[in-house]
User: Which sequence fits this backbone?
């Protein structure tokens, strides 16, 4: 009898030891603590230890405890997501990396980890958002766009659940947020993707036409400006490189031809970012604005391109147009000036680099001259760093940056306008 009691006690003790020996739990919780401290390298090692003991992620609740009668639900039923955590740590390590090779390696690891989860039946919203952002940061816009499209088609109610305690609070807030422009082809709200890291994933319905005419009466810095705006749109605003057309010192026929070709490629109800740095003209007789090409002749509107005519090219596709003009705006004796014509139809936000009656100015940055307005636009895009930017917030940022100075001696040198909107609200996004 005593022997049987001893064996029973021994078996129970062994069972208790086995049940309490759960290295995955201690390693995982250590990883969470380290992640909250921003120690992503050591957090990743801890999550890898958890995987060694318990390899698979699960969205179901886990139980812990020494015996059946004392077992409890672990962390209030939170998912167990060590593989997701390891990939996320790689993502954060890439964001912090100073050396390009280290950044590339961490990005590759993040992409591999998130992609394995997504293709393995564990496609959470968080994994897909981060996968798209990692692809974009690695310069693979095609794959970023593919994941983004899949995300917009996803039934969010059936999405896999992950342990969001792993996420940095800033990233969690951005991933959880949604927003969209006034008009958008898919009819759904694209996610605002992680905003402090790498390139912003592209949205396929966004296009840009950038015109910089230094010749023909334009600003000498106009060509530098379109190059800088192009780079900023790709890096900070979710525009695909192939969706941006840049024209430098273009004649009217070229502007018209390239605009029509771009509109032909755009989807119905797409978004157009229109930027023009050059010379404009207001015709008193017709009360219309015109853009000058390098071949335009002073006072002869038949050699110019009507601003409204350019809009119509894209309005025919139902496009939402966000137009930015870096143009001198002298005022005639009768009160006429470029920008006085306000469209009556369409969905258009119209913004100018300076007030009526004033001129635009330049600033030197690292040996190159740029327009003050353009420089402020670029700094605002860098700061907002999103594929869905509210035009009113954007213009307020430009205003504040010009007022405070975007270079030596240029603080308050000109006053940009806030958007004049037609067919949309000032909070519309581009």
Assistant:
């Amino acid at each position: 009898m005593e022997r049987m009691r001893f064996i029973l006690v021994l078996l129970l003790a062994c069972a208790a030891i086995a049940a309490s020996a759960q290295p995955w739990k201690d390693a995982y919780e250590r990883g969470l603590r380290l992640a909250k401290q921003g120690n992503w390298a050591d957090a990743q090692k801890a999550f890898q230890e958890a995987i060694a003991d318990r390899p698979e992620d699960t969205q179901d609740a886990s139980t812990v405890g020494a015996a059946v009668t004392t077992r409890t639900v672990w962390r209030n039923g939170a998912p167990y997501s060590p593989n997701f955590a390891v990939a996320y740590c790689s993502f954060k390590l890439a964001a912090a990396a100073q050396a390009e090779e280290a950044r590339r390696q961490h990005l590759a690891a993040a992409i591999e980890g998130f992609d394995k989860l997504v293709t393995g039946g564990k496609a959470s919203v968080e994994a897909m958002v981060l996968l798209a952002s990692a692809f974009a940061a690695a310069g693979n816009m095609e794959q970023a766009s593919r994941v983004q499209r899949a995300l917009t088609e996803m039934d969010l109610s059936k999405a896999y659940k992950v342990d969001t305690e792993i996420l940095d609070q800033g990233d969690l807030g951005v991933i959880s947020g949604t927003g969209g422009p006034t008009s958008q082809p898919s009819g759904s709200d694209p996610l605002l993707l992680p905003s402090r890291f790498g390139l912003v994933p592209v949205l396929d319905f966004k296009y840009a036409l950038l015109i910089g005419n230094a010749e023909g009466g334009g600003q000498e810095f106009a060509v530098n400006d379109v190059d800088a705006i192009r780079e900023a749109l790709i890096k900070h605003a979710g525009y695909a490189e192939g969706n941006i057309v840049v024209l430098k010192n273009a004649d009217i026929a070229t502007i018209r031809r390239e605009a029509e070709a771009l509109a032909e490629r755009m989807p119905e109800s797409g978004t157009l970012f229109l930027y023009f740095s050059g010379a404009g003209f207001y015709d008193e007789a017709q009360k219309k604005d015109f853009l000058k090409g390098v071949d335009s002749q002073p006072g002869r509107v038949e050699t110019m391109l009507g601003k409204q005519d350019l809009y119509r090219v894209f309005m025919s596709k139902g496009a939402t147009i966000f137009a930015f003009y870096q143009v001198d705006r002298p005022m005639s004796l009768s009160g006429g000036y470029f920008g006085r014509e306000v469209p009556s139809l369409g969905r258009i936000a119209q913004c100018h680099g300076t007030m009526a009656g004033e001129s635009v100015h330049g600033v030197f940055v690292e040996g190159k001259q740029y327009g003050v307005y353009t420089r402020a636009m670029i700094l605002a895009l860098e700061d907002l760093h999103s594929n869905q930017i509210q035009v009113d917030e954007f213009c307020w940022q430009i205003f504040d940056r010009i007022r405070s100075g975007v270079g030596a001696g240029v603080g308050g040198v000109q006053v940009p306008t806030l958007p004049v909107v037609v067919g949309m609200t000032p909070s519309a996004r581009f």
Summary: Confidence is low (pLDDT under 50) at residues 8-20, 177-197. The radius of gyration is 28 Å. The first helix runs from residue 2 to 20.
